[in-house]
Amino acid sequence: MAKCRIFAIDEGLKTVVENGLYSKHLFGTAISISVVKFVAPRGPDIPAKAHHHGEEASLQIIGGCNVIEGTGNGDPADPVTYMGPRTALIIPGGISHYGTNYMGREGASMRLNVVTPPRPEFGPEDGAPYYPLRNRGNVA
Q: Which CATH architecture has domain 14-122?
């Protein structure tokens, strides 16, 4: 029988990039949920790779970010959406996107992302956290 599960947003985060990026994820039957927390000093400089997946609802909790639609080549014509603290964004499924992060006065930029269908690249919940870093291989 299915049960409700609690997901503490800022507890139990795992290191993706030391002194820069921490994350964790959880799966439902039709969604994946992840928290990404970029912190100073390295967080603002961590490059995201353009990627795509199913529909995403993203909630910027602290700090801010730019979500850039495009292939990651820095085309100035690529649409940019700024997310400030306590704002949400829906990214349609299949849209290639990447972003940059801005630290809030807390010294961090933190988002909660919900994607459907679940993102298989996340792997098991107790495994290493995943983030589409620019220096990773060609994973969608």
A: Sandwich (2.60)
